[in-house]
Specification:
Structural class: alpha/beta
Oligomer: single chain
Order of helices and strands: HHEHHEEHHHEHHHHHH
Helix content: 40-55%
Number of helices: 13
Strand order of the largest sheet: 2-1-3-4
Number of strands: 4
Shape: globular
Distance between the termini: 51 Å
């Protein structure tokens, strides 16, 4: 479906009741699930940067793209198109994926329907980006409610929801750990550590991608360019409108909470979640073997 027809479909959809639209989604559900799953097997990428939504991937994507464009003297309008960049310069073709964890208008993946089969990643390199699950829940809730208008309800309902909540996030990340033996190599990047030392972690990622002899100056430039204040300013001025993948950072409306670049705060969940919500998430983490997040849980408990 082209862009114009997609816009027309959204406009037509506004005239139908939610019950009618939900019936339409349910009819499309099986087809879209399996279409996405089958098509993924024909992807020829050699390296994947994987993350659950709202784990900090866009920020990393901008830093990576900025550095690669400067290092290889490429047009910065393809900064967000990492597959094209890596193909152009002879690196491992690199793809970003949420691996079927997204929530879209016409299909929902429940916690028990996360894509278990990782065979298509066999022998591939994977960068798995993780973030404190409590911060992910707050950020994803804001994104779906205020930016994409795809969830109605309180944040307490959100974190307990099988389609979008904490159990789905935990199962998603655990599946990657369970299947890491299939991979050529797995690099786990922790959002909080990148925030603490972006230069060191960006260098680690770029090296993992196979880039050699890049300068510290390029790393510093990329980190500065993707800094929180600059990213907010660029989004507000619609800087990305002529760039590849412009829609990722396109302003949706004047509401600051609808911005893609919102707060980027480590531990900001404490401002949005009740004690009961935090306890529910912490209990879920323990239930799902939360060793992957112990680094941030310990910090929170020791405050």
């Amino acid at each position: 479906m082209n862009i114009s027809s997609s816009k027309m479909t959204r406009k037509i959809g506004k005239f139908f009741s939610e019950s009618v639209k939900q019936r339409y989604r349910s009819l499309k559900n099986p087809f879209n699930k399996y279409k996405r799953r089958i098509s993924s097997y024909f992807d020829d990428s050699e390296l994947y940067l994987v993350s659950y939504p709202c784990s900090g991937r866009t920020w990393l994507r901008v830093m990576i793209g900025k550095l690669l464009c400067e290092h290889f003297s490429l047009d910065e309008k393809i900064m967000m198109d990492t597959p094209e960049i890596t193909k152009k310069v002879g690196l491992l073709k690199t793809m970003y994926t949420h691996d079927c964890s997204l929530v879209e208008d016409h299909y929902y993946y429940m916690a028990d329907e996360i894509f278990f089969d990782k065979a298509r990643f066999s022998g591939k390199k994977v960068i798995l980006v993780i973030r404190d699950p409590r911060d992910v829940m707050v950020s994803y809730y804001s994104h779906l409610v205020k930016r994409d208008n795809k969830f109605e309800g309180s944040i307490s309902e959100f974190i307990r929801d099988e389609k979008v909540g904490i159990k789905k996030l935990l199962k998603f990340n655990n599946l990657w750990l369970d299947n890491q033996g299939l991979l050529k190599e797995l690099l786990i990047i922790k959002y909080e550590e990148v925030r603490k030392d972006p230069s060191q972690n960006l260098s680690k990622i770029i090296s993992f991608m196979g880039v050699k002899d890049f300068s510290q100056n390029l790393v510093d430039n990329a980190v500065e360019f993707a800094g929180f204040e600059n990213m907010k300013k660029l989004e507000q001025m619609n800087y990305w409108k002529d760039h590849a993948y412009a829609n990722i950072l396109r302003p949706r409306n004047s509401n600051p909470d609808a911005s893609k670049v919102r707060k980027a705060k480590v531990g900001g969940f404490a401002e949005s979640l009740s004690n009961e919500d935090v306890e529910f998430i912490d209990h879920s983490i323990a239930e799902f073997n939360g060793s992957l997040y112990q680094y941030t849980l310990d910090k929170h408990l020791n405050k």
